[in-house]
Amino acid sequence: MSDSLHEPWLRGIAFNPAAPSDVLIRLVDSAAGEAGQLMCAGRDLPDAVIDAALNHPDRVIRRALAQNRHIDPARLAPLATDPSGIVRGWLAGGTPAHLRPRWVRPLPDDILVTLLTAPDGGEDGTLTANEIVGELVSSRQIPLSFHRSMAGHEHPRLRERATWEWQSLTAAQREALLDDPDPAVRKAARERSWVLDPERVEARLPSYGSRGKPLVFGRCALSPALIEQCFADGTVQPLTWNPHIPVDAVARLARHPDAKIRELVAARPDLGPDLVAELREDPDEDVRMRADLHPFPRTWAEYWAIDRVIGHGPDCTCPITEPTDEPSPDWFAACAESREPVLRRVAACFPGLPAELAATLAQDDDEEVRILLACHHPLAPAHLLRDVFVTRLAHRPHLLTLPAFPRTGWAHLIGHPDPGIRALAAADPTLPEAPVEDPNESVRRAAAANPSLTPEALEVLLCDSRTAEGAAANPSLPGPRMHELLDHCLNGAATSPSAKRRR
Predict the structure, then answer these.
(1) What is the CA radius of gyration of the chain?
(2) For all residues of the chain together, what is the average pLDDT?
C-alpha cells in the first residue's frame, strides 16, 4: 500500500471512537507524529491512554493532553505539578482563545489550588508561577463557586487573591479579610477596598486613563463631584448600571435627552414608580420596552439577567459564563410563562429551567427564544438542535460541542446544498447508502466513517486517498485491522512479528 495513505490512516485511527486502548497507546509514540498530539488534545480517551500520555517523556504529548476538554478534568491533576512550565501553562490556559468554545468547563478545585499557590513555574524555567496564574485567570476555567470560597480558604495566598473580587464578597467576608491574621492578606484587602470608598475612588481616577474610567464609573462608589463630572462631560452611560449612585442621579438619567441612556436606566431595580410610569410613556420604543419589563427586575441579579439578552440578536455567540449573582429558579419560571418575548428569551438561557417549560419554549413563536434554548438548555429536543444547526450557521461550532447534539435523524438532508449539513447526513447510520463519492472532502470523510458500511466496502475506501481517513475512523473497523494499519505506518511492514501474532 502507498506510503501516502499513512497520514490519513493515523489521523483516522486516532479519532476512531471504537479504537481499543492498545491501539491508541501506539499513537502516543513519537513515530506517529502529529496524529498522537491531535488525539491527546481532541477526543475522549480510555484511562490507560490517559495514563500513558500523563507519563510520556515528551512534554509535547503532555502539553496536548493539558488542552483536552473531552476527558474528566480531574484526570489532568498531575499536569498541575508537571516538571514543565509549558505544560502547566497550557493546562492553566485551556483551549487557545481563538478556538475557545462559548462555554468553558471549569477545572476542579484541587487543580486550581495547586496552580494558584505554586511556588514556582516548573523545573524547566520556561514560565514563572505568576505567568501561569495569568493564563488561568484569563481562561474562564475558575468557577464562581471557587471565587466565593477563596475568602475563607486556609491558604493565605488564596485569601489574598479573593480580595481581587472585592465587590462580589459579602460584607462579613470583607471585614474578615481586613482583619486577616496574615499581614499580606490584610494589605491586599486594604488596597482593594478602595472601590467602595468614594474619596479614594476620586483620588485614584486619574491613574486609570480614558480606557479605565468607564469601568470605574460603572462599578465603583462615586463621590458627588465625580457624578457631576460625568454629566458635564457627557460620559454618563456607565452610570446607568452603577448600583451605587444616589436616587437623584438615577432620576436625572431617567430624564436624559439621549434615548439610549433612558433605555439603559429604564429597568434598574431602584427606579421609583413615578419614573417607571414616565418611561412607559417615553416617545422611544426601546425605552418603553425596558420600562414595561420593570415588574420583573426587582433585584440587580434580575436586571443583569435581562440585560444579557437584550439587543444581542439571533446570531449572538457571546461567551456563556456564570452570572456573578443568579436570580431564583422561580423567577426564571415566571419569565418562561411571560407574554414578553424578551423575558422568555431570558428564561431560555437558564439551564435549570424545568423540562416541561423547556419543552414549551422549544415550540415558541419567537425564533430567538428557540435559538437560545438550543444553545443553553441540556434538555433542548433533538429536532430543535437540528433546526438551529441548519438555519443558523453562527451557532454550528457551539452546537457540535453539546452532549445532546443528535447524530441521527439527518438522512433526509443528504441532498442539502450545504456540505456541513450533508456531512452530518452522510454519517447518519440510518442512511441507506453512504455518499462516498460526494464532491466535498468533509462529506466523503463522514460517509467513509459511517458504521453501516460493510467490511468489504471499508477495505476499498481504506485504499483510496480521498476516503482513507474516514474509513480508518470507522467504528466498524476491527481492532486487529487497526493494528495492521499501524504496523504499515509505524513499522513499515504489514508482516511484522506483532502483526503476525494479531492474525
Answers:
(1) 28
(2) 93
